[in-house]
Records
---
Amino acid sequence: MSTAVVLAAGLGTRMRSPLAKVLHPLLGRPMVGWIVAALREAGVDDIIVVVHHQEDAVKAALLAQDPALRFARQEDPRGTGDALRSALPLLPATGTVLVTAGDTPLLQGRDVRRLLDAHAAVPGRLATVASFHADDAHGYGRIDRGQGIVEHGECSPDQLAIREVNSGMYAFDAEHLHAELPHLQAHPPKGEFYLTDLAGRLDGGATGVTSEFPATAFAGVNDRAQLADARGVLRRRVNRAWAEGGVDFADLDHASVDVTVVLHPGAVVGFGAVIEGTSVVAGSVGAHCVIRHVNVAPGAVIHAGSVCEGATVGPGALVGPMARLRPGAVLEEGTHVGNYVEIKNAVIRRGAKVNHLSYVGDADVGERVNVGAGTITCNYDGVKKHRTVIQADAFIGSNTALVAPVTVGAGAIVGAGSTITQDVPADAIAIGRGMQKNHEGRASQLRARQTR
C-alpha cells in the first residue's frame, strides 16, 4: 500500500480571486483534482489532502470526485514542512510517503510512478527528490548535490547559476518523517518550516535525486495567466486521448472537452466546440457549439453555433444552426429543430419539425408535427407555467401563438397568424385571427399626408 500527501492549504493571493487557488476549474475538474487523478493513475492507494483555506469547499469538491480521500487540517499555514506535519497522525508507520503540491495540475501518473520506483530501487533510502532543468530557474529551489536543496532567496551566486531545480515532489521513508518532522526548525524571517530540510544532503546514499523530469509536469499555477496556460495543455492532452480512441476533432487545440464528458468512437467535434459536464456524445457537435449535460445520440447533428443544456438529442435528430436547447428538451429520433429555435422542457417526438424562429416551451409535440416559423407557445401567465400539447400529424401555420393550456388534436391544421386560446379538435382547421379589411386607393392618400 502506498500513501501520498497533497499540500492544498494555500489561498493563492496572486490569483486575485475569492476562490481558493486549488479549486479553480480546469476542464470540469478542480485544479487539485488533477493531482489526485494522477496519483490514482500511478496506483497510489491512500491519498491525504492537507487543507486550510475554504476547507469545506475543497473537501466537497474532491470527495465528489474521489470519495476515498482523507484530509488533514493545517491550523496556521507556516510553510510546506508545517503542512506535512499536520498530516503526520494520518501517515503510516512504515513504507513510502509521496508528497506533492496541489497546484501542479499537469502532473501525470507516469511521473509519480517513476519517482516511487526510483525511491524503492535504493534500499534504506530516506528521501528522493524529483528534479528538472529550468531555462529560467528564478524562484525555484536549486539542487546542490552533496549540499541539499537551497531555496532561491538563500542561494549563493554560484548556486543561482544552477539550472537543476526542485520540483516539489518527494518520496520519503515514513519512519524518517515520524522521526524528523516534529523537530523541524523554523526559518526566518517568516518563521516557516521547510519541507526541503527533510531531503538531506542529496548525496546519493540516504537521500538522492531522480532527475530529468519534464519541466511541464511541475508547472505551478499561481495566477490566471498560468491557469489559462495549464488549461491549454490539458485541453490538447484530453482531446488527443479521445482522438486516438476514434473521435474526429476538427482541431485538437480549438475544442474544449471536460474530463467528465464521454465521447463515443465516431463522434465528431467541430472547431471551437465546448462540451461540458455529464455530456455523452455519439453524434456530431458543430463548430462553436456549447453543450452542457447533453446526450447526443448516434447520427444526431448539432449544427454550428447552437447552445444546449440539460437536453437529449435522439438518433438522427438535427439541431440548428444557432438553436438553443434548454433543460428538459427531449428530441426524439429524426426530429428537426432549426435556426433560432428555442426548446425548453418540451418533448419533440419522432419525425416532428420546428425549423425556424420559434419558441416551444412546456410542450409535447407529437410525431410528424410541423411547426411553422415564428410559432410560440405562450406557457406563462405571470404566475404559473402551463403546458401545450400538439398531437401527431398536426400542422401549425407560421406566426401562431398557442396560449397554454391548450391542445391541438391529431391531424388538425392551425392557420398562419392565429392566436389559439381554445383546444382544437382532431382533424379540424382552426383560424384565430382578426378579419382583414382593405381600404382601396387609400395608400397614396396616406403617403401624401405623411410627406407634407
---
Amino acid sequence: MKFFKNYPLVCVLVLTFVLFTAASFLRRDLYKDYEDSDIMTPEIAAMFQGIKDGIYPWSVNEDTMTMGQAENAEAEASPSGETSPVTESKGQSDLDHTGSMISGNDGEDSQETEAQSGVSQNGLSANNVSRNGISGNGLTEENAPDSGAESEAGTEENGEASETESGQEDQTESESENTEVILEFSQVDESYLEDALFIGDSRTQGLYEYGGLEDTADFYCQTSLTIYDIFSKPKKVAYLEKGGPKITIEEALSQKQFGKIYLMLGINEMGTGTAETFLEEYYRVVKHIQELQPQAIIYVQGIMKVGAEKNATDPIFNNTNIEIRNTGISMFQDNQNIFYLDPNEVLCGEDGNLNGDWTFDQVHLKAKYYQIWKDYILSHAIVRDQTS
C-alpha cells in the first residue's frame, strides 16, 4: 500500500498492462491474425493492433458463433430416439359363450377402459403399425433398393443414345418383373375349404357347430381363446385327427400343411392391455404362421362387432374399440399372401352394430345366421390358379 501511495501512476500502468495482457491471452481467437512470429513481441501488441482496427476484447468472434450455431442446429435436428414404454394391465378378461365377462388366468378382473390409440389409415401412433408390419420391434419389411441407369460421360452421341435406350428397356423389364399381380376375390363353393383351417374363439366355435363345415375344414377353436393363447401361452386346442389327442396349434401347424388359414380373434382381448399390444402380438402370430405354413393363404378377419345395446353401455366391449383394432388388423394384409376380410359388412345393420335380430346375447350369432358368415367367406376367396 505504501508503494501504491508513493507511485500510483506506476501501479496503474502495471495493473493496466497485466489486465490487457490477460485479455489478449483470453481472446487470442480474435487477434490471431495480428500475432507476430517474433518471440520478443508481447501478446498485448496483437491486441492493440486489433483495437486500432476496431476489434475490441468484448467483440464477438463470428466464426466461432457460426460454428456454435451449426452445432446447436444439428443437435436440435437429431431425434432423441426415446420411446414410451407400453404397459399392459394384469389379467385377461374374456367373454364366455353367453357374452358375460370372466376373469383371466391370474383370477383378477380387468376393468381398464381401452385408451384411444390414435389409429389412422397410416398406422398406430404408438407403435406405428404400417401396412406391412409394426416398426420399432424388428417386424417391418425392408425397403427395396432403388434402381436406375446412368449413361457414361464422354461417349459419342450415337453410343450415348444406344446406352440410354438399352437402359430404359432394362428398367422397363425390371419394373415389369417387380410389378405384383393384383389378386381379386372370387366366388367359390365349399370344396374350396377342404384344405382350410379356422382358428378362433367361441364365435368360430359357432361357425364350426352351425356353419355346416365340420366335415369340410379343420377348426382349432375354443371359447375364450385369445391371440396370446396361440404361441405365447399356447393352449392345447388342436388335433391332427378328429377324436385324437389335443395338442398346441404350433405343434399341429408344424405337422400338417393347409392351403388356407382363417383367423378370427380379438373380442376376448379387449379387457386387457391396449390396442397396440394386441396388434403387436397379432402380427407376430401371423408372421409365425407364415413360417410354419409358407404355402398357405392367410385370411385375417375383422373382429365381429357387438349389438347396439352392448355397444351403448359397455365401456370396453364396444364397436368403437373394435373398429380401432380392426383398422390395425387390416393393415397386415399384403394382398399377395395375407388378405383382410370383414364379415361385419354382411352381419351389421346400417347403424354399424351387429344386427339385433341375429344375436341372442349381443355378442354371438343365432345358429341360422352363421350361414351368412360362411357365404361371405365363400364369396371372398383367392384362387391363385386363375392368375397363372
---
Amino acid sequence: MGKVIAYSILLVLGMVGSQLAPRLFADAEALGTFEYVRQWLTFICLAFIMIHVGYEFDIDKRRKGQYGKDFAIAMTAATFPWLLVAGYFVVVMGEPGAASSWSVWKEELLVACFAAPTSAGVLFSMLAAAGLATTWLFKKARILAIFDDIGTILLLIPLKMFIVGLQWQLGVVVLIMVGLLLLAWFKLHAFKISISWPFVVGYSIALVAASEGLYILSKWVDPNATIHIEILLPAFVLGCVIALPRRSDGSVDHTHHEGKSSEALVGTIISGLFLFLVGLSLPHLDKIQAAQIGAGVVGAEVGVSEPIAINWMTVGLHVLAVTFLSNLGKMFPAFCYKREASFKTRLALAIGMWPRGEVGAGILVVALSYGIAGETVLVAVISLALNLVLTGVFIVLVKRLIKGEPQ
C-alpha cells in the first residue's frame, strides 16, 4: 500500500499546486504557457497508461452480448451520477421556478457532467499500485471504466449542441470515435510494433500531437466550433491493435514485461507524474469566483462589482451532498454480475468506480469556457477535489472488501 499512499500524496500536492500556480505565474502569458505544458504532459501520461491498458485488453468476439451488458452497466455508472447531481443543482441550489426553465437545465446538465466519468487512468494506476491487477475486479473495472468514459464523451456531444447549437464538427467527432472503435474490434492485436517503453512514449507524444493538431486546425477554420478528440480513446485503441507475444497455446502473454525493471520503473514514474498532473489540472478557485462576479452571481447582485462574501458553510454542505450523490450514482454495478462474483466483490467494484480526475476537470473547464458561472460550478470543483483527495481511501476500502474473497 506504500505506492497508493505515495500516489495519494502526489495527487494532493498537484491540487495544492493548481491553486498556487496563478500566484507563482503573475504574468498571464507565463501562466498560459504553464497551463499549456501541463495539459500536454497530462495527455501524454494518460496516453501512455491507456496504451498499456489497451494492449492488455482481450475481447472474446463470441460474447458480444456480455460486452453489450457491460456497456449498459457502464452507462448507468455515467448517467446516474450526472442526473442526480444535475437535479440537485437545479432543484436544491437553483432559484424558485428554475426546474421549469430549459436554459437553466442545459447549463447545469453540462456542469453536472463532471460527476459522470470514472477516471480510468487514476483508477488503473491505483488498483495496480494496490496489487489488484490480476483480480476479477480489476479486469471488470477496466472494461466498465473505459466504457464509462466513452459514454461520457458521447454525452458531451448533445450537451454541447444544446449550448452552441447544431454544428457539423460534432458529427465529425462521432464519426472518428465510431471509426476508432471499429478499428479496435476488427484489428485487435493485429499490428506487430515495438512495445518497449521508449516506443510507447513516442506513440503517446505522436497521438497527443495529432489530437491537438486537429483541434488547432479546426479552431483556425472556426474558433467557435472545434474538433477535439479526447486522447483516452485513440490511445486505448492503439493499445488494442498492437500485437502481443503469445504462448504456445495461442493465448496472449501478459507477463512479457515481468522481470524487466526498467519497464516497471518507467510505468511507476509516469503513473505518479500523471496523478500529480491530474491534481494540477483542477480549475483555479480564483478564476471561478472571477467568472461568478463577472456574471453577477454568487453573493453579488447583477451590475455590482464588489460581491458579498460567499457563505462557505453553505457551500461546504452542498459539496458534501453533491459528492454523496455523485458516488451513490456509481453503485448500480454492485447489483449486477451476481453469477460472477460475491456481493462484497461487486460492492468493491462499484466503489472502485468512484475516483474522478482529468476528464471531470476537463468538463468543468469546458463549462467555464462557455461562460457558465454560478455557485454550482464552485461546488462542482470542490467536490471533484474532495473526491480526488479520497481516492486513496476508496482503494484501501476496495482492497479490504475483497480480502479473502475468491479472485
